[in-house]
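User: Here's a chain of 710 residues. Predict its fold as tokens.
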Amino acid sequence: MTELERKIKAKIPGPDTGIEVRRTMCDICSPGMHCGINAYVKDGKVIKIEGMDGHPVNDGRLCTKGLANRQYIYREDRILTPLKRVGRRGEGKFRPISWQEAYAAVAQGLNAAKAACGAESVAFYSGYSKWYRQMLRRFAYAFGSPNYGCESSACYTAAFMAWKVAAGDQANPDMANSDLFLGWAFNPFYSSYMGARRAMQLKEQGLKFLVVDTRRTPTTEKLADLVLQPRTGTDGALAHAIANELIRNGWIDRPYIDKYVYGFDDYAAYVAGFNESNVERLTGVPYSQVQAAARLIHENPRVSCNESSAPLCHHRNGLQNYRAVMALLAITGNFDRTGGQQLSPHTYMHVSCGFETREHQFLYETRPRNVKDPVGAPRFPLWNYLEGEMQAMDLSRQILEGTPYPLRAVFALGMNARMFPDSGKMFRALESLDFFVDTDLFLTDTAKYADIVLPACSSFERGEFKPYGGGVAWYTSPAIVPLGQAKSDVDILTELARFMDLPDAQLKEGYESFIQKYILDDYGVTTDQLKKVELPVKIAPVAVHRDYELLEKGLSTPTGKFELKSAIIEQHPEWGLDALPTYREPLDDADPALYPFTLTSGSRIPNAIHSRLHKVPANRSLRPVPTADMNREDCRALGVAEGDRITISTPRGSVTVSVHPTLSVPKGLVNLFHGYSEADANSLMDADHLDPYSGFPAYRSTRCAVKKEG
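Assistant: Prediction complete.
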């Protein structure tokens, strides 16, 4: 072997080997992390990837998902041309067509639905990834439809709503200056790996951790000074019991409450009902542990909190659970203070980067007026009041029922029907449509139902603006040319808007114009400048936090205070919602005699997110078989051992999977990881078992039965 051959085999970049290192980012976990990647490219193909040193998020590191990017990009089922369906919906039979034919077919299909039933009969939906969502919303509004919606109908938005109700905007933990970190469903080892590194460093520096989680996780084992393990969905009752203990002992900040908090007396009277007489029955947590938690909070006055938006909110009482946890910060004086929780308004794509932009203006300035309410508005009035977009968890019902008005077409980017509760119902809804378009990298189970499928790019094949905390940002450049005829999502939207001549000149100018005019112009930076930098650079000043400054000015709530009792909900009694963060039992109404176990879905595994990596061989090999975690005692009672087959059933149907006996889950709980098409956890969920405040599905609190197979 020659020296050159050895260098090529070792993937050493240089003019002699023809290998270049090009910088891009991973968007498999979207949009929070977006880790920097060095892509080694030879002959136009990525041959190696590694983390980017100096990047503000990952600084040279990548998780199992990020490391999968090369196999992810070159999956065998990549869509390389636009496709037109020639078989039955779901059959997966298509023929290639040109982009011109595709745009003509999309325009005809959408306009036909509009002519027959109105613009509102067309829904515009975003799944993964999320980077194009501002453009898709503008597209929907230019078309005249109020029905823009996204997978955030079941991810994160309920948490944002809870913060809006309480404080007017989102707040993040000042963890580095805290005495105690309240990690409610905090598991960064699986879902935010760099957060785990930071937490371990702060632990070594003396930060204490109170961790609350239904399961035992690496966090409970490696970080926690005290662990509380409530039954799934009972977090609100537990938070109220801790609050009551703090109040009874006088371990609250009364001057702070009197000045900055609204509704405390009513709240205190309500949480008094959660005490030593009932908390263990309600939550499974001994009252002695509630007392220990309250004492730990009292002894460590600067408290910040992670209240994870999925585990807390994926219940029919989810938003109220979230508010109950947040209330602990208010009554101890830990909102808007150093070492506590600090307001951090969104900069871009629901990420707080320390500076303000006019993204919100771009999103809403063209919203159509005098149109019908979006999907889900009558059913979820608080969602509609705060978010004003389609609550997509009501989408399948409205398609199938046609009330309060018909939905006859769906234009989707990255739609995953298996992310909906009762996914079978969503597939039936898609089958019933007059017209369905999906844009994706892969011919997914959902894309197989589409009339037209459009091929999208990966993050390696496009450019994208991305800001990070501390006021820094960059604009990536493509590391490789798009595979086949694939296009970036924003180019598809821009070109289609031009083809259809939609009445939005800004939309037709494209994505880069949006970034320049609504974000970068305010800071004297250009997209061309950001494309030239090697690493994200500082583009905007970040305000210095001053304790209680925002509280003194007044929050953007009706009272100007942190609201334990929501004035918004008080002002709308017709909604039938509780202004206090009241607690209700989480489980559905199925007969517990027939369905004695509790099914939870949605837990993170390190090698996948949703179903995005289940067809990447290296990642699939880490958990190749759909498997449910069950407590060892439950397994012994059922007579099952490691790898045995069990059938999990609910009134919606059943799936058969392998079982993993473990001590990480409590008795009575069945933890089934989602995303496996051959054993779809969400096919067992009830599409009507939703939170009336947010519309979020109860992925984590559904009654089920389990039996041994064979």
